[in-house]
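User: Fold this, then the next.

Assistant: Folding the first:
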Amino acid sequence: MKRLTAEKLKLCFMKGTENLLKHKDEINALNVFPVPDGDTGSNMSATMLEGCKYLESIENKVTMEKVLNAIKNGTLMGARGNSGVILSQIFRGFCDYLKNVKQITVADFAFAFKSAKDVAYGAVMKPVEGTILTAIRYLSEKVEELSDAQDFNEFFEKTLMILKKAVDDTPNLLKKLRDAGVVDAGAKGLYYIMEGFYKYIQGETTINLDVKTTSMPVEEIQFIPEDLKYQYCTELIVRAFDELNNGQEEEIRNFLYEIGDSVVFFVQDNVIKLHVHTNNPGTVIEKLLGVGELLKVKIDNMKEQHEHFIETGYKEEGPRKKNAIVAVSPSEGISRILRDLGADMIVIGGQTMNPSTADIKVAVEALNADNVFIFPNNSNIILAARQVASSIEDKNVYVVNTKNVQECVAALIRHVPDEEPENLLKVYEEAVSEVVTLSVTRAVRNARLNGEKIKKNEYLVFVNNSLQTHDLDFKKALEDAFAKIEDLEEREIITILLGKDATPIEINILEKLVKQKYPNLEIETYEGEQVHYPFLILIE
């Protein structure tokens, strides 16, 4: 097929909607991260479905003008959430470029991607890479290559290859996606829409918009609860009394960024569409009433959604695993490290913030596995972990008695996914017994500990969870602690997890000391981002 008629474009769009609907649950599962702000799969589906409704309402002869206007206006009026709004602007730019075309060629479609990218980026005051914006940008940057396709079969094959790369790249561009171990939901949604277009071109012409989702939710989503700065997701559609000038548009944009974030704002055919996270949705409504009449208002309490998710948890689907791992982590940085080493579920907690038995149980129950290993990573959490182990009936639960995260890292380095659980437990326990760990913190008050007088602000160095030395001089405290490790010259690697309070001077002192006195140790440094302990160290 070398050209798309108006009728074929209409059916491509509807097939794209059907394909998105099939994968809605998968997209929603991805959108668990970072906070529930509606659901990306549901929001994108609502946007596309409204476009289909407008397409189905076309009367008399189907023309390209009617189809483009239906897609453009339908997606605008149906847009929900940040992802839906941006998706509507992608189609707005796409339709605007094609407005004078009677039949769409491959080159027309390719250059429409470029227009779609420009309009979508223009709608977002502070575009964020690693999102659906990145996906449409990747397509816009390959216009020449796409234009060379011989027909629409080849065109969409190339389109899907480009989009797949964009989706796979999103975690590299957005730290929170990387920490969570997921790709961007909006970018993946756009991939499925274009896949639907391709399916129609290939001959799958039956369309069912009542289709139920068939894709399993993605596996291994790490959800890290976080405080919400802004509580209400606020969306408005307003018909302006008069055409807004550039000064008025800029004033509204600046106002939205003063009172919130995640701002999307644009004006299309005298209709204002906005999305903002704010603590004062009433102020937004009042401001916009000054320039027009409300057509649609949607306000969601994200705090309520957020707390509901934490309470109910995430249920892992997909093939049942032989062995799975739950690890307690005090920070995002350490969570990332544990995830890279094979942890399937992360429970946030640690020193001063011990998770409850219920927290750990939710994580264990969410895993679809025959055997689950719990790493409590703190002596105060081991009992809670054991209680969970004794209360689970549908899987075997083992507690590895790790008293700090360094022991957990040492154990997971030796992780063998398909090993027999009894053997794997021995491997873990052996790793814990062999590693030397140091934990460096500072005294917050004068005190006595194990008969020792501790002064406020002294460095405290724990070796294998036992206080070995304390001093106001950081270098001296380290030297004393290292001197008490008997076989240090025989070890090979020292891994340092840097906390939020670690200073460049302290880091330099530690690394210089190791290089000068223990050249046998290869230094590996990672951003642990933990609080209270500027340095967590393991020596193997």
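Now the next one, as you asked:
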Amino acid sequence: MTDRSRITRRDFLDGILLALGSTLLPPMALGDGFDRWLTDDDYPPGRTGLRGNHPGALETAHALAWTGKRDWGTVTEPDGSDYDLAVVGAGISGLAAAWFFRQQNPKAKILLLDNHDDFGGHAKRNEFLVDGRTRLSYGGSQTIQTPGRYSRIAASLLRDLGVKFDRFVSAYDMTFFRRHALRPVTFFDGKTYGKASLVPYTLTDLSWGVPGIVRSALSPEQAVERMPLGSRAKEQLLRIMTGGDNALDRIAAAARLGYAGSTPYFTFLREQHHADDPDVFRLLRSLPAEYTGQGADTLSTLEALALELPGITPRAVSNLAPEPSSRLTLDETEPYIHHFPDGNASIARLLVRQLMPHVAPGSTMDDVVLAPFDYGRLDRSDSPVRLRLNSTVVRVTHDGPPHRADRVSVTYVHKNRAYRVRATHCVLACYNMMIPHLVPELPQEQKDALRQAAKAPLVYTTVSLRNWRAIREVGLGAAECPGSFHQSVLLDYPVRMGGYGLSDDPAHPMIVTMIHVPLADDYGTPPREQFRQGRFKLFSMPFAQFETAVKDHLNDMLGQGGFDADRDIQAITVNRWAHGYAYQGSALYDPEVAPERSHHVLGRRPMGHITIANSDAGARAYVDTAIDQAWRAVQELPVSS
């Protein structure tokens, strides 16, 4: 249970946003007369263009949820016998559920189903071959954050997979950014601000999320003076940047905590910092977007404090209550270094390799990085664990009344054809908001609770560059980009593991991650409406529009360093997550909501032989929560007679 008086960066994200937890589905290599659904040479991580929620992954689910479609035609049963467990969703939580069930039932037959063409959920691997060199990056779930806070269950699973947390200390090159004089910068694009400019200063501290990056030597006064803003905006921005220590002193001591929790951040800036210039609010709005899926205009002052936004400093937390409370400090004692080169996709790969050793060679966290994975072997009929991609589950029902049934039927659609498998048990490790559509027999209260997990859309665009000479020339380590389509730009993390690593030579390839969160046109738009509008925008955008945004942005930002997008970009992968962070509202800060009545707790209740996993069910956007919820879901399955 979260300590409601301790506001940490992780706790904020935990309580407001459930995870990048998703559903991805595997191929079929059926040796029982069925055509193979994925060929041996088909390799999803190497695909470019629109990925994430890629074309073909969501159409069936949308027909079910948006139009209420229920007739999928003649249903075929391709597998000759029942499974002991069917898992809906092959993200980290679904894979972990299969792992835990297999540990307790070594002879169990397990089938995992996913609607995407790759496994891992939001733990997406992007892979490129650039001039003979393999380059890796993450298309979603990025890191093992604060592993010292992991539960015994989650930590034990990762250890069993061969993950050694100490290994990341030597794998992450803390000196890379300093060695190459790469700094955090704010990029002002030419279209919005009249002239493109890079200011080597950021309004939030990026050194937490990019360990080792060189902090700016500029003072706030020097930085603001270099920004392409009017004199009035500069004066107000500087007042916000330097006046955070006593920003709450005018509020009565007993009322400060309540004021911070109930007052919108932008209202706080107007009331306490006397800010009203539109350029100031435009500059601040996108700062928290990559962490929250929202703009700063929808956050409370307390949430802004947790994210260290300008205007109220961590030193001011003692002013929030009549008695100073050290528990309101930002607690980030573990460095943000626990990255595989492909993010948490390597955790998904470790799970798949343990469950299906015939898919890939190796046994360590290092060798999984470059281990060849044979997707054509994921769904072998002679394997006790099978993973079936490109398969969207549309219905899960007990074969009879839930309290008396002894098995479950799972119907899924592949290439517009319906199939059904039967299993003794079923774990739903998919988007929680889809579950009411999949399981019509759930109680209405539970369906209503599950629907509260509305997900915020976001995009991780991975750009493969032939070299990083221009990046070195302009000294860019990471960028905040107010006004730009992509609000953040990050370089490949300097991780060296398993024979793979970032090169010190600027003539060699580099991966750049560009993050876009579709914010509403109108400030203050309620988050759920903002998310709806954002999803519509993303689904309406063809790849060419993303490509143009990338090229224009990088040409504008790196042009003075000699960058030319048509020459220097090798490939672009747009990881479009129309359903990314899951939003729960501000329940973390609401003492009136009893934990057992929280939406995610009500929504995850088991029913008969069906249980619910996924990080959505734990209201925390982290790998450990995905694992913990998988463990809980497996323990809640009834013991078979």
